[in-house]
Amino acid sequence: MKKFALALMSLCLVFVAACGSAGNNVANEGNKETVKEAANEETKTEEAKPVKLRIYAQYADDDTKLPYDYAVAELKKEMPNVELELEVQAQDDGQKLKTYAATGNLPDIFGAGLDIISTFKKSGNILELDQYVEQFGFKDKMQPSAMNTLVTDDGHTYAFPYAGNEFVLLYYNKELFEKNGVKVPTTYDELMTAVKTFNAAGITPLSLFAKEKWPTVSLFDMFVTRNEPQGIKKLDKGEASASDPAYKEAAEKIVELVQAGLLPKGATNLNYDQAAALFHQGKAAMFLNGQWEIAESTKHLGDKVGWMYFPGTDAANYEASKYAFSGGGGPGGYAVNPDTKDKELAAKVAAFLSLKYAEYKYTERGNPLVATKVDKAIVTEYPPMMQQLSDDIAKISSTTTFAWGLSDAKLKAAIEDASQSLMTGAYSAEQFIEDVNKAIPAAK
Amino acid sequence: MNKFLGNKTAILLFIMPALLLYTVMVFYPIAQTFFRSMYEWDGLSEGTFIWFDNYTRLFQDGLFFTSVYNGLIFAVIITITQIGIGSILAFAVADTKFKGRKILRISFFIPVVLSITVVCQLWLSIYNGEYGLINKVFELLGLEYKQDWLSSSKSAIIAIAFVNAWQYMGYHFALLLAGVKSVPEQYMEAARIDGATKLQAILKINIPMMAESYKFCLVFAITGGLNAFANMFIMTSGGPGTSTYTLTYLMYRSAFRVGEFGYGSAAAAVLVIECLIATLIINRLIARERISY
């Protein structure tokens, strides 16, 4: 009897073990999504030992794939002994990376935003790069205006940045404005008139991909910046309350405009493709997105598209707040795992990749908004809208931040939810103030 | 038999694999969730033990009540539609005089097999405010009743609940059909001889005898509704604003968006308790004694 029981028991265990390893295999398959950047080029006579580094970076569309590929190719020339194993960054609020950190499986180099930096700083999963910034002279390579992307609030550097300060722009279809006899609005009243006229003509006044919550926060922020240039950044620092006049009026104005039909039907369920299609096909008169939209809109609408300064409360306010831009940048870029074998090498690779990544964006992607200086000539000419922005950069008096640049995760979640609710028109400014105020951090 | 039961080592050996699996896969994580719900913890660093502070905060959080309320609405809608319509379909298909039973039996089950993402995408198009099927039908009928189904904070949760109800109706249908078929034929024969109508037979014989099937369906529908997540995650991301949050969604937001794993665990713990209570109540009220035919 005992023998039989033992035999059965071992059979069970074998079965369990088999199930277990099958599960592991599946998990490993998942991990193998990594794209190997194997060295196909002629192998130079190796001076240093070959090193393999794992990197977790954005690699999703042309705007992220091409610069990355370029940076890797340049790295092969500079440091032929380094081989990078890329793992594509998931669009998941940093969950995968945090899980890696929690399980001690963090890649050697990883793309980090402010959220990851502040979390990892506390848990000791990110290397402080100050000495390497000094050693590589990285500060001298930075655009002076983008220094805020290198150094965090505590005065230290945790990532080598490549993206500069980016902006939210209000795009508009010039042809639709002309055809319908609508003046490009400079004040809220004119904006309301435009909304009414477009609605009467069966045109959506403003297309917004409000399923993603950040555009709704940016729209709110644009209204706020008319009277409070620091916008949502001030809430993030705990220096303002949502019941302050600038924020209250902004919320009220949005509710009023949404009720008048500012947005397309079901805006809170529109993703980028759907909302952009409305604008690109001439069914919507205005569109809100970051300056990275310039290339795409120019491709579809040619010279019919432009971007406007945000309307003010009145003519005087319009002039005064013309260069108070919404958006901005923050610390972020390629960060290094403190447990990597050769810290200096990993930091060197991270710094090199950022520089080359920015270089490609600047020279080939028509994007002057990078963090670092580029001394190479531009290959792709700027589209007119980018030229206009580029001319304005020196005049910009203030910037704020995008929703993802908010450092307080609680406020970020609350303001994202509340701003999206504003887009339904059935959510009052009072509710907005109440919900946001609950999450505002204590002043630092 | 007695000899076998007397051998405690054998008993232990036989239950060990299942017990081990259950402990590692189910019991340990649940215990961890309860334990971690008493921490202020971001999922990475050490965390501080704060007793029941997370729960105190939870019971003062407006979002918690929205989530519980939405979970209840969701559970009620899917329970009524899935079990209600599932029963009607099951009784219809079980009737031998009913034509096209086979094809119907298969087609009712198709949505269950589909991926939830596919189903949600399908319904996103149906609900679309501009060109969605439902609004177009109203338009064709000349009715002005056009709705922004998923963008209105009031109707969104109901609209999403119907998607889930539609998808898993076939599941309950299959369970109930098996229940109908397991009722012995002689009871129905006796009822027919006594002159009972079809409806009377169903109400007086089938349904009471299928109490165990119904119990099972109820537990599934109600707990499924209380911890709904995938539908709202794909269709509205909890929006507009927070109007389609459920407890599972609150847990997700706290843990992954806000980085408060302790608070998220507290929400999860409440959810576990809620589902346990629902299951206990159902077990108390329905089919308390085993029915044997």
TrEMBL record, chain A:
Name of the molecule in the record: Raffinose/stachyose/melibiose transport system substrate-binding protein
Record keyword Signal present: yes
SUPFAM superfamilies assigned to the protein according to its UniProt record, in alphabetical order: Periplasmic binding protein-like II
Keywords linked to the UniProt accession: Signal
Claim: Signal is one of the keywords in the record: yes
Signal peptide: 1-27
Any Pfam family hit: SBP_bac_1
TrEMBL record, chain B:
GO annotation, biological process: transmembrane transport
Family matches, as Gene3D superfamilies: MetI-like (1.10.3720.10)
ABC transmembrane type-1 domain segment(s): 68-282
Membrane topology: Multi-pass membrane protein
Positions of transmembrane segments: 12-31, 72-94, 106-126, 156-178, 216-241, 261-282
GO CC annotation: plasma membrane
Subcellular compartments: Cell membrane
Alphabetical UniProt keywords: Cell membrane, Membrane, Transmembrane, Transmembrane helix, Transport
Statement: the UniProt record of this protein carries the keyword Hydrolase: no
Highest rank taxon of the organism: Bacteria
Similarity remark: Belongs to the binding-protein-dependent transport system permease family.
The protein's name in its UniProt record: Raffinose/stachyose/melibiose transport system permease protein
